[in-house]
Every structure is written in C-alpha cells, then in structure tokens.
Amino acid sequence: MIDTLVIILSQPFMQRALIGGIFISLCASLLGVSLVLKRYSMIGDGLSHVGFGAAVIATALGFAPLAVAIPVVVIFAFLLLRLGENSKIKGDAAVAIVSTGALAAGVAVSSLSGGMNQDFNSYMFGTILGLSDSDVILSIAVSVPVLILFILFYNKIFAVTFDETFSKATGVKTEIYNALVAVLTALIIVVGMRLMGALLISSLVIFPALTSMRVCRTYKSVMICSCFVSVTCFILGIFGSVLFNMPTGASIVIANIGAFIIFWIAGLITNKN
Known about the structure:
This protein is mainly α.
C-alpha cells in the first residue's frame, strides 16, 4: 500500500490535483463557516449551477468559459444575497429558482450545440486529475485573498457573521464584508468546478462547517476544525478515488459524509457526558 501511494504521489497529475485541491478545500471551508452560520449554506449550490450554465453557454458561443463564468457568478452572488435580505422571495427559494434555471439553460444550450461533450462533462462532474499548471496557479491566486481576508479581518468577519445589526451600529461596514464574502465565494465556486464539478462543489462549502459544529462550540474552533476536516477529507477522497477507481468528486463527498457521521456520534457522546 505504501509503495502504491509513493508511486501515485510521484505522478505530476496527482501533485497538481493535491496542490490545487488543498487550496480550494481550505478556502471553501473558511467561507462555508460564515455562510452556514448566516443561513446561506445553499448559495454554493446555486452559484455552482450558475457557473455551469455560464460556462456551457460561453463554450457554445466560442468564448473562454472562465472569463464569462466568473463575472456572471459574481453578479448572481450579489443578487442572491440581496434577494435573501430585502425581497419577499426568501433566500432558499431564490437559490432554487436561480440554480434550476441556470442548470436548465446550460443543459438546453449543450443539447442544441451537439450534446454533452468532454468540456461540458468536466464542468458538470469535475476533472481534478486533469488539472493543468494554469489551473493550479489560478486556484492559488483565488485562494490567497480568502486566506488574507480571514487572517487580517477575523474579528470583523466574526462580528458580521453573528450580529450584523449590532456590527453596523458600531460602525463596521457590513456591506463591504458581505460583498467581499460574496465575491470570494463566487470565485472559489467557479474555480472549484474544475475540481468537483457543478453538482458536487457545494459539498466543499457545506460539509466541513456542519461537521465541525457537531463537536466544536466556538467560532474559532469551528473554523480551525473545518479547515482540518476539509483538507483531510479531500486528501482521503482523492487517494481513495485512485486506489479504488472511483469518481474523484464522489469519493471526496463520501469521505465528508463519513467524517460528518463520526463527528455527529462524537458530539452525541460528548453531550451525554
């Protein structure tokens, strides 16, 4: 087994997948804590479907998929947050409308343009083991601002996450921080689609935060544990996919489900004691 893992790690495609995936998993888990606590956990699912629809339409029209998908997803991130705050349409309903509409548009355009080819499949299901050097560089470039944001402005993000009204009353520019989180979430989702696909990328946002909350009780401990769970499940998932010849995205999600069950049981035992 050890010899097999060494051989796998020596492959360039695996090294690229690990570097890009660890950065995206780490940042998705950080953003996921704030999104879950603010009850925007399904925004990742909605934005991934928007990204898929935008990428498919861009490809069909002959444009660069990411160049179109990134600004479109950023715009829809703001739209979904605004709908959730000020509209009669509640956040979950808004996400459902946008996600299903975008997914339907992508599938319809792909069908009209000749059916599902490899490009469309890669955005739907991910191609983490096929990442290029430019994909890895893009993953790192998108991840660094997220890490800087949470390191430098941890206290402000904490305040905005738990009590936005009080934060605004004390002079915190909550709109700026909400906008930053929205933009960075959109970027992570679009880039992460190359790893996990539009159907599974939201799991990197939701699962680590929910898993950590089964055991941890403070914001900082949840964030730290969420990062650990996310990166660990990603590594286990990608190795499991190679060793057992499973789809990589599905393998990572299964690892996250297993972690959630373990933490849930641990939380039950801890609460009883």
